[in-house]
Amino acid sequence: MRNDNLTYDWLDFIAEHKKAKKLVLKEQEAVGLPDEAGSIRTTLTPGQQETKKVGSLDVIVKRGLEGNTNARKDIKGIVIHHTHTKSANSTFNVLKQRGLSTNYEVDQKGTIYEYVPPERAAWATGGLANEHTIGIDVTHFSNDPFPPEQIEALKKLVNELAKKYGFELKLAPSEGPMKWPDWVAKYGDGTFTLFRHRNFVSTGCPANLPMDQLVSGVSGVSGSDEPGILSKAYDYIKDLGSSAWEGIKSVFTESIDEKLFHVQDKSKNKIYENNKKYFDSLLMFLKKELKITKPVKIILEEDDKNSKKVLGRTGGYVNQENKIHIFVTNRHIKDVLRSLAHEMVHHRQNIRGDFNKNEPTIHGYAQSNPHLRRMEKEAYLKGNMTFRDWEDNYKYRGESYE
């Protein structure tokens, strides 16, 4: 049997399928895993593969993540994720390493993998949604486009699953995050059945995947908030072929809200330009988490003299001008991003009116002024923890820290 770290193409799999089945005989019994008839069956060796049908679709079954699952009582919907990996094999290894799981993955060629049977609740989504939803990961790394064949396979899979488990596909609006009971309380049970990961937890997942394509032509569709241009562009590009996606890459990739965030990069090494995807991702996360509604100017600047001081400045916020200064000389990019999160909390405080007392921030203000001390405490706690939440989310399905 070939090492499971290597990627299988279809011919490899067919050629070795019979050998793989022979190796199953001595392996562990499934951990209470029922097959579709409800009986217990022998599972595959972790990493081995076989095929099955989901409706009319061919699905490659790969086991080894069943330990990170729970028994499921019912299935009421589907949650879509992106992986931040370059291959399904990488996704599988990352999930296993981190004690996570998902039911399905659709790779960029449109190949569908089943890691955990839908009858088991995978550890995929959070927000108390795992017990009620099937998790589907879409192989996607950084700003790569979503190829037409991948979207088409994903569309077929969600429709087959909806048909099998007896619910209509109804796309939830892009709001939240809210826990599953809060969705039910607000809209009613079964009102929406197709969700983004970010509907339940603070994340950008599943990037700008054109969710409206998954329900186009399906009855009972509601709640889609994707721009209509995506639907038209997708149909047009599908006719041209996958290479045409490169031409409109920016349409399908998230970028910062330039109406809110004005970044002025005065650094010697173009720190923003060279790390744009991190800055933009963090800023969009902060916008959502801190409820940023007022424009802010962000200045990344050098200060050689300050950088030589052990207790030199790292940043500052000018509330009268809605302006953030971040000093970047000789600093690690992660530390710069953390400072940005801290100062953005001060901007949020300004939006709330916390600076209306016009109290001077002179030496010792954080120790002598109770009001300013509370504000500074919030900036340290909320800024650092929001940054940590963003960082963990960014690396959540990543195959490397780059």
Would you kindly provide a written description of the structure presented here, covering whatever features stand out?
- With 402 residues, this protein is α/β, with parallel strands linked by helices.
- The protein folds into two domains: 10-251, Peptidoglycan recognition protein-like (Lysozyme-like, 3-Layer(aba) Sandwich); 261-395, Arc Repressor Mutant, subunit A (Orthogonal Bundle).
- Helix content is 35%, strand content 17%.
- It has helices spanning 10-23, 88-97, 148-165, 180-187, 212-215, 228-240, 271-274, 276-290, 304-307, 333-352, 365-368, 370-395, and strands at 29-34, 40-42, 49-54, 57-62, 69-71, 77-82, 104-106, 112-114, 120-122, 133-138, 194-196, 261-265, 296-301, 315-318, 323-327.
- The strands form four sheets. It has a seven-stranded mixed sheet. The protein has a four-stranded mixed sheet with strand order 12-13-15-14. Strands 1-2 form a two-stranded antiparallel sheet.
- A hairpin with a 5-residue loop joins strand 1 (29-34) and strand 2.
- Helix 8 (276-290) packs parallel to helix 10, helix 8 (276-290) packs across helix 12 (370-395) and helix 10 (333-352) crosses helix 12.
- Mean pLDDT is 78; it is low at 1-43, 218-254 and 397-402.
Average pLDDT reading: 78
The number of helices is 12
Could you name the CATH homologous superfamily of the largest domain? Answer: Peptidoglycan recognition protein-like
Oligomer designation: single chain
| Share of residues in helices | 25-40%
Strand order of the largest sheet: 3-4-8-7-10-6-11
